[in-house]
Amino acid sequence: MPRLGAHLSIAGGLPRAVDRAEASGCQALQIFTKSAGQWRARALPPEEIALFRRRVRQTKIRPVFAHNSYLINVAAADSVLRRKSIDALREELDRAEMLGLDGLIMHPGSYTSGTEAGGLRLIADALADVLASRPDLRTRLLLEHTAGQGTNLGHRFEHLAEIIDRLGGSPRVGVCLDTCHLLTAGYDVCSGEGYRETFRQFGAIVGFSRLKAFHLNDSKKPCGSRVDRHEHIGKGCLGLAPFRRLVNDPRFRTLPMLLETPKLDTPQSRRLSDIDPFDKMNLRTLRRLLRAPNP
What we know:
Layout: E1 3-7, H1 14-24, E2 28-31, H2 46-59, E3 64-67, H3 79-98, E4 103-106, E5 109-110, H4 116-133, E6 140-144, E7 152-153, H5 157-166, E8 173-178, H6 179-184, H7 192-205, E9 211-216, E10 218-219, E11 230-231, H8 241-248, E12 256-259, H9 267-272, H10 277-289
Parallel strand pairs: 1-2, 1-12, 2-3, 3-4, 4-6, 6-8, 8-9, 9-12
Antiparallel strand pairs: 5-7, 10-11
């Protein structure tokens, strides 16, 4: 069966995210290793790293991924912002490696005032730079398929394939698919036929060997809207059917599937419990779909 989990808070220190994952019944985990909205990152104390790694071993929560900062844009036409982004990506990869994480998930980037073709070249060149500077790191870079808002790249399977091809097919680069992004980018995974055609295309263009993780999110916006707004499982434009197909699809039976659905994000909820009731609700919904008949 797929390993179900969620993106969880690191408030109180990185090991607290593992505690929250255990309390919530997660089998896999995604975190930020720093504030997603800031360039600066606090140094990770050795004792915090050691405790985090120990808690992961104790709980057997695997795989564990980080998502990189939303500020990073290695496709930026502005050379100063692009260099800052490359340096920040390198730092995030170092942090993920220190923590023993399986992957660093990243949005490929936005071409801003440049062109789509030029943006894809810039992304591949940046990743080649980062990977060449860290030849011995085990943590993979995972390109997240995007919704395609504005000048965002990565919303077509062809974008992901081109970046990987420009990297010489490096085994250090994989892909993360997001169900909300698939729908809003124009891949109609709601119907049985649309689901089959979407993954036929993915297999032909990118290849299933590259697929290392899913983000499971329903969508507030319809197919082709190119707007990224997550919703609770079964409560949005996707409905339950595509999630039932995903969690029961034998091609994905060993993959992590991580929630990024809305949280009950209030000071009181954070203080009273490590378990977010919305995460609990969404995980329960997914587990009920396991081995349920596909429509």
